[in-house]
Design brief:
- The protein has two domains: 257 residues, FAD/NAD(P)-binding domain (3-Layer(bba) Sandwich), CATH 3.50.50.60; 86 residues, D-Amino Acid Oxidase, Chain A, domain 2 (2-Layer Sandwich).
- It is 32% helix and 26% strand.
- It contains twelve helices and 21 strands.
- Helix 1 links the parallel strand 1 and strand 2.
Length: 401
């Protein structure tokens, strides 16, 4: 089987489905090739407030029946007794005031279905074998046939198909190396009420790493352990949970689903863009899940790409190597801000000097919360300016072609 299209997208996760949705809505012929069959399990359950305007643009509405309201984040160091809560409603003016905790199987299927409702075609259970480029087109060989397109978007996530094929994977040192995680089911009614009141993600500080605890609807809690050095295995997860009085209390009487390990995940793609292709989301860069930036940067990056690509396809200059330069600059600014924050989280006294400070500069606190909310493309955040000297851009969209 062989077919021709405007755009082929590899992967129907949040980034791929966002790109498919927006391109199809703009009238382009889009096919998504997805190796898995949806719904399928995936880790990474925490969204950021910066996603809310985009979700509206996608025609996707989240509510408390299927997803857990997320008011903010709590940082906890049980070793010292320090605990602080940052609520998104206290961010700089203009930052959305909440987000959602999502079960990825449900959320990803919702995004994919929204893309197909806009006219995109998603081919599930089909793996890409090879990709090749010439002056006129990109050719994708899958285990179901051949596809020809004017442009390729690689949204293959941690598989990073093009990066690995091109030998362009560059590990990012001294960030999280791997995670061991599981879902706990059957939380007590009292714990459900406690966690559901704000739906905050809980971040526990531990030696050389941290633990996430993310409440989900249906009486479930996602718990994962991240380390930037040392052995990461199932025993680490058991020791970490057993050593936390809070986690022991929250998970008492629950059933733990099988543990899973995700390894070697902090990397950047040195060839994330080229003539007739762009890599987005984890296929372009993955930092560390500590501030829940992965899904948001994938989706917001997909939005940035599709606004530029749609115009390029209409003009016929989609192969111009400069087409994606505004997107590259935009995402470098975002990734740079989060990387600086993550490095300080792991390798400085910033957490205790700033996060847990008894008296905080109100403006810096609000700026920190805006960064935690994913609102990283603004020029009035003094906290972000202190984090990085990278050039920051606003959130303009391509208004016309």
């Amino acid at each position: 089987m062989s077919s021709s299209h405007d755009v082929v997208i590899i992967g129907a996760g949040p980034g791929g489905s966002t790109a498919a949705n927006l391109l199809a809505a703009a009238g382009h012929d889009v096919v998504v090739v997805e190796r898995a069959v949806f719904p399928r399990f995936h880790v990474g359950e925490s969204l950021l407030p910066a996603d809310l305007p985009l979700l509206e643009r996608l025609g996707v509405e989240l509510d408390g029946r299927s997803f857990q309201f997320k008011g903010g984040a709590e940082f906890i160091d049980e070793r010292s007794g320090d605990c602080v809560t940052y609520l998104f409603r206290d961010a700089l003016d203009g930052t959305p005031d909440h987000a959602w905790q999502v079960e990825r199987a449900v959320f990803d299927k919702l995004l994919a279905d929204a893309a197909t409702s806009r006219g995109a075609v998603i081919r599930y259970g089909e793996a890409v074998r090879t990709v090749s480029f010439d002056d006129d087109a990109v050719r994708v060989e899958s285990d179901a046939g051949s596809l020809r397109a004017r442009y390729l978007i690689d949204a293959s996530g941690q598989d990073a198909l093009l990066a690995r094929e091109l030998g362009a994977v560059e590990p990012i040192r001294d960030l999280g190396r791997a995670a061991v995680f599981a879902h706990y089911e059957g939380l007590s009614p009292e714990v459900q009420a406690e966690l559901g009141a704000q739906g905050n993600v809980k971040v526990f500080m531990i030696e050389d790493g941290w633990i996430w605890a993310i409440p989900l609807v249906g009486g479930r809690l996602s718990v994962g352990v991240i380390k930037w050095r040392g052995k990461i295995d199932e025993a680490l997860h058991e020791r970490a949970v057993a050593a936390s009085p809070i986690l022991r209390r929250l998970t008492r009487g629950t059933t733990r689903r099988p543990l899973r390990i995700l390894g070697n995940f902090s990397f950047r793609n040195r060839r994330a863009v080229g003539p007739r292709y762009i890599c987005i989301g984890d296929a372009a860069c993955f930092l560390d899940p500590v501030f829940s930036s992965g899904i948001s940067l994938a989706m917001l990056g997909a939005e940035s790409v599709t606004d530029l690509l749609s115009c390029g396809l209409e003009r016929g200059d989609e192969a111009d190597p400069e087409l994606m330069q505004p997107h590259i600059e935009r995402m470098e600014s975002a990734y740079g801000s989060f990387e600086q924050l993550i490095r300080r989280f792991y390798h400085s006294k910033m957490i205790h000097n700033l996060f847990f400070a008894s008296e905080q500069d109100p403006e810096l606190r609000r700026g920190l919360i805006s960064v935690l909310a994913g609102d990283v493309w603004r020029d009035d955040n003094r906290f972000q300016a202190l984090l990085t000297a990278s050039k920051r851009r606003g959130r303009p969209r391509v208004a016309s072609c």
